[in-house]
Amino acid sequence: MAFIHDVLEEPSYGWKDANGELSKPTPRQIFSEFFSRLNIFSNKKNWLSFMSWAMVLCLTPFLFLFIFKYFSITGLVIAFVYSMIVMGTHGTIWYHRYCTHGAFKFKNNFWRFFTQNLTLKIIPEEIYAISHHVHHALSDTPGDPYNAQGGFLYCFLADANHQPVNRNLDEKGYNRCLTLMKHTGVTCNTYAQYKKWGSVANPFHMILGVIANWAFWFTAFYLLGGMGLACAIFGAAGFWAVGVRTFNYEGHGKGEDKRREGIDHNRKDMSVNQLWPGIVAGEWHNNHHLFPKSARSGFKPHQVDSAWYYIKFMHMIGAVSHYHDSKKQFYKEHIKEKVKKITEPVFCPTTGKQIFATERV
Ligand SMILES: [Zn+2]
Ligand SMILES: [Zn+2]
C-alpha cells in the first residue's frame, strides 16, 4: 500500500466502509476510540496523544484563575489577542508553513528554535505535520484524517483518533516519516525506540522541551505582569488549543460544498477561504490548497496574512534565507486570465463599432 495511505494509524472503525465509501462512525464510536487512544495504562504508545490533551487540561486552571480571581478588561484584551492572533499566527507559521510544507527556510538553527518557541508549546509537531501531508494528498476522501464529511467530532478529536503515526511501519516506512520531520529539529526516535514508543518524537526530549518552554514563558509573563498576566496568557493558550481543533471542520465547508465563485478558486477539494481564520492567522485555506508550498496564502489585497508578514520580516533581517511566494502565479493563473478576457475588444452587433469591455461592463 502506498505510504500516504499507510502512514497513519487506522481507527478501529476504519477509513472506509464495506462499499469503499467514507466510514462515518457514530459519536459513541468516536468517543470510545478517543478514550482508548488516550489510555497510557493500556498501551504506552498512546503517550503522545495523552500528552497533547493533558497539556490542555493543565492549562484549564489558569483560565479559571483568570476569570474568577485575576479578571480585568486589559487582561481580557491581552488574552484575546494572544489566543486568536499570536497563537493562531504562530500555528500557521510554524506547524503549517514550516514543519509541514517547508514553505521557507531558516538561516540557522537559532532562528528555527526562536520561532518554534515563540509561543507556549502545546501541539506536538509530529501529530500536526505528518497527518497534514495525508490531508493534502487525500483531501475530502476516505483516509483524510479530518475529513469534514465525517462530522464535527470526527474532525475535533482527529488529533487522537486519526492523526497519530501508524505503529506498525516497517523500517523503510519509518525512515520516510523521518524525512518529513528532519528539518523541524524535533529529536526523533531510532527505529527500535519507535517500536517501543509508537511515535517519531522522542518522549523524553518532547517532555523536557515542553517543560522548559512553559517555565520560560511563565517566568517571563510573571515578571512582566504578575500572576494576572501569566494566568491570562496561559488560559488563553489553552482556549486556543481547543478552539483550533474546530478549524479543520470549518475550513472544508463543514462537510458541504460552500465554495464561492470568484472567492474560492481551487475547485479540487472542499476547502474555503474564511474571513476570520484568514484575518487572525493568515489561514486562507482555499488559497492554501491551491499553493500549499507558498509562504504566503493571503493573495488578494484584503486577504491580510500575519504569518506571511512574520516570514517576510524574518527574511528582511536575515533570519529566513529562502521562501516560496506564489502570489504572482495565483494572479497569473486565476485572476489575470479573467481580466484579459474581459478587456478584449468587442464589437457592437448593430453599428459594428468597436467597444471596449470597460464600456460594456
Ligand atoms: Zn485543508
Ligand atoms: Zn496545508
Explain what this protein looks like in three dimensions.
- The mean pLDDT is 94.
- This protein is globular.
- It is mainly α and 361 residues long.
- It has a two-stranded antiparallel ribbon with strand order 1-2. Strands 3-4 form a two-stranded antiparallel ribbon.
- Helix 3 packs across helix 11, helix 4 (73-100) crosses helix 6 (125-137) and helix 4 (73-100) packs across helix 11.
- It is built from 17 helices and four strands.
- Bound molecules: zinc ion (ZN) (2 copies).
- Residues 135, 139, 251-252, 271, 285, 289 line the site of one zinc ion.
Descriptors for this entry?
two-stranded antiparallel ribbon; two-stranded antiparallel sheet; binds zinc ion; mainly alpha; 361 residues; 17 helices
State the separation between the terminal residues, measured CA to CA: 53 Å
Contiguous helical run count: 17
| Mean pLDDT across all amino acids | 94
Q: Order of strands across the biggest sheet?
A: 1-2
Question: What is the helix fraction of residues, given as a range?
Answer: 55-70%
SSE arrangement, N to C: HHHHEHHHHHHHHHHHEHEEH
What Rg is obtained from the alpha carbons, in whole angstroms?
23 Å
Number of strands: 4
How many strands, what sense, and barrel or not for the largest sheet?
2 strands, antiparallel
Provide the β-strand percentage band.
under 5%
Low-confidence stretches: none
- What overall geometry do the principal axes of the alpha carbons give? globular
Secondary structural class: mainly alpha
Hetero compounds:
zinc ion
